[in-house]
Structure formats: C-alpha cells, structure tokens
Amino acid sequence: MVNIEWQVGKGGTLTPRATMEPVFVGGRTVRHATLHNIEEIWRKDIRVGDRVLVEKAGEIIPQVVQVDLSARKKNSVPVAAPVVCPSCGSELEKEGPKIFCRNPACKAQFCERVKWFVGRDQMNIEGLGDKVVDQLVDAGLVKKFADLFTLDADTMAQMTSEATTSAGTQQRKIGLKTAQSIIDSANKAKEKGLARVLAALGLRHIGATASKTLAKMFPDADALLAATQEQFEALDDFGETTAASLAGDLHRPDIRKMFKDLASVGVNLRSPLYGAAKTAGVGADNVFAGKTIVLTGTLENFERSDLAERLESLGAKVSGSVSKKTDFVIAGSDAGSKLEKARALGVAIWNEAQLVASLKSIETA
C-alpha cells in the first residue's frame, strides 16, 4: 500500500481510500480499496508501506482486510486522523468512527452533491459523468444546481471525457454533438417533478421513498416549504428525527434559495404524485389503482423510474420484488428471475403493448 487518500462525500463525511501497487482481485486489476474509517484503520493497524490482503466486499468493492506484519518496515508509523479538510482546509469534526467537514461551501462536497443530483435515480442527466462534473465545477461553470440547466454547448464541447477501448482508457474531447445531447437531457430532466428534485438534493434522511411520500402530500415546492414539523411527523414512516431534520433544512436560507434558483431556470417543482392516494379508486378505466406492480426487463417506450412514478400517480404501488401479494408483473425484453418467479406463483404478466393500451385508455377516458 503506497498511500491513503481521504475522500470527501456529499454529506461531508471523509472516507479513507488506499492506493496500492496493482493487484489482480476478482477478475480485474485494482489499485484502490476502501479502508472504511479511521477506527477500522487503527483496529487493523494498517500503515502506509504495509503489505496487505485485499478482497472484494460482496464481490463489488475492494477492501483491505488484513496486514502482513511479517513484511512491515521498521520505520512505519501509525496513521493519524486528519484534522483539516483536504479540499477546503476547514477544521474537521469526529463523531465516533466518522470524520466530517462541516463547511457547507466545501468544493469537494458540492462536487459530490452534483454527481448525486445528475445520477440516474435522481434527475438522470445523461452524459454528465464524474470526470465531466469535476471539470464543470473546477472551471466555475457549475456553482449551484441550477447552473446545470444553463450550460453552453460550445464550452462543454472543448472539455474531455474518458473512453474505454481495447487499447485502454483514453482521453478525448466531448465534442459538440455530445455536449448538445447533455443539454437536451438536462432540458428533459426539468420535467421530472418534485419527488425527483427532492431525492436529488441529498437532504438528510430524505431518499427516494421519503421524497415520494412528500410529493404525494404536497402539490408543489411552495407548499412543502410552508409546511411545519408537525405536518411532517404525521406522514407515513416519518418519525420525529426525520421530521425535525427536514423542517430545519427547509427553513435554511441556502436551501430555500436553491429551490428558487431551480424554479428560475424552468425546473418543474410541481408534483404529479400529489393526491394519488386520494384518487386511487377514481375512474373505471384505471386498472392500476390500488394494485401492487413489479417492473422487470427492458421497456422500449419508458424509463423504468419514470414509469414507476407514473403508475404511482395513478394509485399503484410499485414493488421491487415479486410475491403472492403482487397483482401483476410488467415484463419487457430480457426479463429475468422476477418473470420466472411470477410464472411460478401464477401472478398475471403484462407485456409493454398491454401497458401502453391501458395508459391510453385512462388518458382518453
């Protein structure tokens, strides 16, 4: 192991990452592995220069699990906890095994929040990979989330991205065609609605499920920002801790400005999910109301996350697994184990044509 780097996450948490001489693990050559946190480093007595045993956690993430003490150099020294943020230089705080940068203006935190914001399960702005986001933030072109929706194609075209070919990883210019595609994707993302925006902001305790719960109960961002902690506590799966945290965050001037900035560039902050639970049984043609549905396989006309939100707006519950409680499975091409389980349990199976026909009948009813 040749170095330990402290990476700053979107919430300010610092995570140690080991850099090693190349090693073949789980079918590929790796140079980096997670060290989890400072107390794990101390518990395993991991030091720079050590010969270490690496394995893949859950066959995905390489991690250092053990040190070969017999190969340790005599001049090695224990790893000390960092005291200032490697990005912004702010003094760090330690809570148990975790170390935090509390500076809300920390550039590294913002960069990670942008990467989260544009991700597939959030705003899904295609083409904005990690390297491109790093360049946009470093160049000062993205200083707030709203800037993602006012990017200039000519400027982006001169930036570089990584392309993996048979010859290895290569750097190349993004080009005007790809830059325009990114801008088109950003414009499409403007219409994702309140639930996606909330999930993308990375607010404490507010993930995809909590975002949908809020979007079903509040018609738009203005109503949400005017809500009280007591209103949040009354929601399903919202305890006192989550409600208090959300109420506090939504009253922060920087968060309120964030919503204002997004609205100013045309991001839709209304909720198509609002009232879904109340109208679930309305309309004789709404075959989705009150049903538990599972999506599987590749659908030609829908992004799965967008379809799930559309079905939920019609009163359906979209589940990630098939059970006896599943009413029907919507199966696209290359469907796998979920389709097989549905057949075994005798659950009704729909193809995409049936789905499209049912949605059209609801729209024209």
Structure description:
- The N and C termini lie far apart (65 Å).
- Strands 1, 2, 3, 6 and 7 form a 5-stranded antiparallel beta sheet that branches. Strands 11-10-12-13 form a 4-stranded parallel beta sheet, sandwiched between helices.
- 36% of the residues lie in helices and 20% in strands.
- The chain is built from 14 helices and 13 strands.
- The protein has 4 domains: 3-101, OB fold (Dihydrolipoamide Acetyltransferase, E2P); 107-189, 5' to 3' exonuclease, C-terminal subdomain (DNA polymerase, domain 1), CATH 1.10.150; 194-264, DNA polymerase, domain 1, CATH 1.10.150.20; 292-364, BRCT domain (Rossmann fold, 3-Layer(aba) Sandwich).
- It has 365 residues and is α/β, with parallel strands linked by helices.
- It is globular and about 80 Å long.
Distance linking N and C termini: 65 Å
From the helix content, strand content and strand pairing, which structural class follows? Answer: alpha/beta
Question: Overall mean pLDDT score?
Answer: 92
Strand content: 15-25%
CATH-defined superfamily of the largest domain: Nucleic acid-binding proteins
Helical content class: 25-40%
What is the fold named in CATH at topology level of the largest domain? OB fold (Dihydrolipoamide Acetyltransferase, E2P)
Whole-angstrom Rg: 24 Å
Low-confidence stretches: none
Q: Can you count the helices?
A: 14
Instruction: Report the top-level CATH class of the largest domain.
Output: Mainly Beta
What is the architecture of the largest domain at the second tier of CATH? Beta Barrel
DSSP strand tally: 13
User: Outline, from the CA principal axes?
Assistant: globular
Number of domain modules: 4
